[in-house]
Design a protein that fits this description.
It contains 10 helices and 15 strands. By secondary structure, the protein is an alpha/beta fold. It has 3 domains: about 120 residues, D-Maltodextrin-Binding Protein, domain 2, CATH 3.40.190.10; about 80 residues, Periplasmic binding protein-like II (D-Maltodextrin-Binding Protein, domain 2, 3-Layer(aba) Sandwich); about 80 residues, Alpha-Beta Plaits. It is elongated.
């Protein structure tokens, strides 16, 4: 192995040391603010990931004066909400290119929480480096695997840049700045570059401009207040294991003239080949939500309302 290869390997190894998740293990002790160096004054909102992430950006869009509380894992976000150490949580639920965030469906079902709002965030990926670095300096690019996958064309056009999966988009910028790694870059948001004092070498490097993520604002069910202007409902249900049970349940929704905008199935843990179905339905009136639940119950072993809210508009 050449000395150059050894040096490259050592540089990469630095990225995967014990500091990787260090900053996000400070759940409620040092919440980050709305901008670098400025604390929010409103509700404590938990997110998964580092400050400067897309979840951070979505949280401030939903709750502009929020105190952002970063968490290492999605399970930590829901535990913090359930235990009352935060007032709400903002979670990504679906990306227009990568699909659903399946873990978050499971967590919504297993916790006593309710969706109260949703928003759409345009995802813009940027090549980010430390101040003074140039594109020609970069031979390693770090980011979340989904972000790397959404920038395949850019990476293919720059074969001298080897890509490495990292736990978080904003976390890759934070690590970049901490290590002062001139030959590495991160793929993340403009907000992450600003938050950590890095520079954008090239903006909008994603393959597809039609890249949006849908985020939910979630509260504890006991404190959730349904929007009187709600025109959308999210439901989870399971059906009896017999022929035609799913069709019968969906036909009941169809009979109400309810527009089904999403359906997702997830396996029931511990019960092979049994499934929970998650659906989003557009509502003509707020009373239609209660009718939809009542129509499902005779055909379902379980029905849970996950939330009623106004549909986000692009």
């Amino acid at each position: 192995m050449s000395s150059e290869t050894i040096s490259q390997k050592s540089a990469v190894d630095l990225w995967y040391g014990p500091r990787k998740h260090g900053s996000t293990e400070r759940l409620a002790t040092t919440p980050s603010g709305t901008t670098a160096g400025e604390a929010g004054t409103g509700m404590k909102i938990a997110i998964q990931g580092e400050p400067g992430s897309f979840s951070h950006e979505a949280a401030l869009k939903l709750v502009p004066d929020a105190v952002i509380v970063p968490c290492s894992l999605s399970a930590d976000v829901f535990n913090a909400l359930s235990q009352g150490s935060v007032d709400g949580a903002v979670i990504p639920i679906e990306n227009s290119l990568a699909g659903s965030v399946l873990e978050h469906f499971d967590l919504l079902l297993s916790h006593d929480v309710s969706v109260v709002r949703e928003t759409l965030l345009r995802i813009r990926h940027n090549l980010i480096a430390i101040s003074g670095a140039t594109v020609g300096d970069i031979n390693r690019v770090f980011s979340h695997p989904v972000a790397l996958a959404q920038c395949r064309r850019f990476l293919a056009d720059h074969p001298g840049m080897e890509s490495f999966a990292f736990y978080d988009t904003a976390g890759s910028v934070k690590q970049l700045v901490e290590l002062c790694d001139r030959h590495a870059a991160a793929i993340a948001s403009e907000a992450a570059a600003s938050y950590y004092g890095a520079q954008i070498l090239q903006a909008d490097i994603e393959d597809n401009a039609e890249n949006f993520t849908r985020f939910f604002l979630v509260h504890r069910s006991a404190e959730a207040v349904a929007d009187p202007m709600s025109n959308k409902i999210s439901l989870a249900f399971s059906v009896e294991n017999r022929p035609g049970s799913l069709v019968a349940a969906l036909n009941k929704l169809s009979a109400l003239q309810t527009n089904l905008t999403k359906i997702e199935s997830r396996p029931v843990h511990g019960k092979p080949w049994e499934y929970i179905f998650y659906v989003d339905c557009q509502l003509h009136t707020t009373s239609e939500a209660d009718k939809a639940i009542a129509a499902l119950k005779p055909h379902c072993a379980m029905v849970k309302e996950l939330g009623r809210y106004q549909e986000a508009i692009r």
